[in-house]
Design a protein that fits this description.
globular; 7 helices; Fumarate Reductase Cytochrome B subunit; mainly alpha
C-alpha cells in the first residue's frame, strides 16, 4: 500500500484507551443486563455479576483518566469542540451524506486529519458522551457501589431511586451506542478500515 496515503490519526494512548473502554463498556452492558434481569438470564450468579460489574467499572474509570490526561495534557481536547461558525452547515452536510450520499457512493465530506479527526456530528456526540453522560454514569455507579458512604450526595440528588434511574437510563443508552458505534465504524472505504486504524494508528486517506 502506498505509504503516502497513510495518515497517523490515532496515537498510542488513544488506541489503548479506546480498546480498554470498548471492552469495558461491552462487559458492563453484559453484567448490567445480568444484574437487571437476574431472573431471565443465567450468565453469572447475581453476586458474580455485581462483583464483575464493579471491578470493570473501576477499570473504565481509570481508562477515562488516561483519556483526560492525554487530551488535556497535550491540548488535543480541542478536537472535540466544533467550530461554532460552520457547525450547523457542517452538520447538514454530514447528515445528507449519511442519509443519501453514502448510498450513492459519494465521498465523505469530512476529510480526517490529525487536527480535525471528527466530523461535526461526531464532535457533538462525543462531546456530550465524554463530558456529560460518561461522567454521570461513573458518578452514579460509584454512589450505587457504596450507598452508605455517599448517602449525603445521593440525598442531594433526590434519593437512591433517582440515582438508580439515571444509571439505568444511561446504561440502556450505552447499550444502544455500542451497536451504533460498531455500525458507523464499518463506513470507511472498507468495512474494517476504521477498526484496523484503531490498532495501527494509521487511517488510509481516500
Amino acid at each position: 500500500m502506498d505509504e503516502r496515503k497513510m495518515i497517523y490519526i490515532h496515537p498510542a494512548p488513544v488506541r489503548v484507551w479506546h480498546w480498554i473502554n470498548a471492552v469495558g463498556i461491552v462487559l458492563l452492558v453484559i453484567t448490567g443486563l445480568q444484574i437487571r434481569f437476574a431472573e431471565m438470564m443465567n450468565l453469572f450468579s447475581l453476586e458474580e455479576a455485581i462483583n464483575l460489574h464493579n471491578y470493570i467499572g473501576f477499570v473504565v474509570i481509570g481508562a477515562y483518566g488516561l483519556w483526560a490526561s492525554y487530551y488535556f495534557g497535550t491540548g488535543k481536547i480541542k478536537l472535540y469542540f466544533p467550530n461554532p461558525k460552520t457547525f450547523i452547515c457542517d452538520c447538514k452536510t454530514q447528515i445528507q451524506y449519511y442519509g443519501m450520499g453514502i448510498f450513492k457512493g459519494d465521498p465523505n465530506p469530512h476529510e480526517m486529519t490529525p487536527d480535525n479527526k471528527f466530523n461535526a456530528l461526531q464532535k457533538k456526540a462525543y462531546l456530550t458522551i465524554m463530558f456529560i453522560l460518561l461522567p454521570i454514569q461513573m458518578i452514579t455507579g460509584l454512589f450505587l457501589w457504596r450507598i452508605k458512604k455517599f448517602e449525603d450526595y445521593i440525598d442531594l440528588l433526590g434519593g437512591i431511586k433517582i440515582v438508580d434511574t439515571i444509571h439505568v437510563i444511561l446504561f440502556f443508552f450505552f447499550f444502544v451506542f455500542v451497536f451504533v458505534h460498531i455500525y458507523l465504524s464499518t463506513l470507511g472505504h472498507t468495512p474494517l478500515a476504521h477498526m484496523k486504524a484503531m490498532f495501527t494508528g494509521y487511517e488510509e486517506h481516500h
